[in-house]
């Protein structure tokens, strides 16, 4: 089962986040085989971390909760909240398989939070498809209810990134600068 996990930083926690970086990476190293995508969200200028995204393939919701809430930054109080949802990998690959590589262009996390009829359950047509790093629906723990869509996208700007999701079909949108994560 695939899960989308987004830890959002607590205001004023940057020093603690930096202090725990090696512990965070070591923790994530333990999940290397299960990792589909990972990396920090950033301020609009791309300079300061604001959260941490991990998409992982784990056996069940209990394992996903253990992953999300056992993370050292969470345990130490770096994050203000955690979004944890089942997710379906519509691209069938990891971020390391993205043909654009880890550094070329601007990257964004786009979240469309759902209400009502499910949308965007298939990969968008070209050219957007070539710019998708990860893409799939957010689902309830049992996988039965659609809760939205999460995408990691290479795009020139936030508006272009948001355009991979159907406008006016979501209760709320979030867009964040994002970059490939992990050890250099």
What does this structure look like?
By secondary structure, the protein is an alpha+beta fold. The chain is built from five helices and eight strands; from the N terminus they run E-H-H-E-E-H-H-E-E-E-E-H-E.
Q: Measure the end-to-end span.
A: 28 Å
* Backbone CA Rg: 15 Å
| Helical/strand content category | alpha+beta
**Helical stretch tally:** 5
Strand content: 35-45%
Strand order of the largest sheet: 1-3-2-8-5-7-6-4
Uncertain stretches:
none
Order of helices and strands: EHHEEHHEEEEHE
Q: For the residues shown, what is the average pLDDT?
A: 94
Give the helix proportion (percent range). 10-25%
| Biggest pleated-sheet summary | 8 strands, antiparallel, barrel
Total number of β-strand segments?
8
- General form: globular
Entry summary:
The chain is α+β, with helices and mostly antiparallel strands and 184 residues long. The chain has helices at 14-19, 21-29, 61-70, 72-76, 158-162; strands at residues 2-9, 35-42, 49-57, 79-87, 107-113, 132-139, 146-154, 172-178.
Features:
184 residues, alpha+beta, 8-stranded antiparallel β-barrel, 19% helix, 35% strand, globular
Fold blueprint:
Blueprint: E1 2-9, H1 14-19, H2 21-29, E2 35-42, E3 49-57, H3 61-70, H4 72-76, E4 79-87, E5 107-113, E6 132-139, E7 146-154, H5 158-162, E8 172-178
Antiparallel strand pairs: 1-3, 1-4, 2-3, 2-8, 4-6, 5-7, 5-8, 6-7
């Amino acid at each position: 089962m695939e899960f989308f996990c987004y830890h959002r930083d607590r205001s004023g926690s940057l020093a603690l986040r930096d202090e725990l970086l090696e512990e965070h990476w070591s923790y994530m190293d333990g999940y290397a085989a299960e990792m589909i995508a990972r990396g920090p969200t950033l301020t609009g200028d791309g300079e300061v971390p604001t959260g941490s995204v991990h998409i992982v393939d784990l056996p069940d919701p209990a394992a996903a909760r253990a992953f999300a809430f056992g993370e050292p930054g969470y345990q130490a109080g770096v994050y203000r909240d955690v979004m944890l949802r089942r997710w379906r990998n519509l691209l069938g690959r990891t971020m390391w398989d993205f043909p654009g590589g880890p550094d070329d262009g601007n990257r964004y996390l786009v979240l469309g939070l759902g209400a009502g009829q499910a949308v965007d359950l298939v990969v968008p047509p070209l050219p957007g498809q070539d710019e998708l790093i990860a893409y799939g629906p957010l689902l309830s723990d049992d996988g039965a209810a659609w809760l939205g869509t999460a995408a990691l996208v290479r795009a020139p700007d936030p508006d272009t990134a948001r355009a991979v999701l159907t406008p006016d079909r979501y209760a709320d949108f979030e867009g964040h600068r994002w970059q490939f994560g992990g050890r250099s």
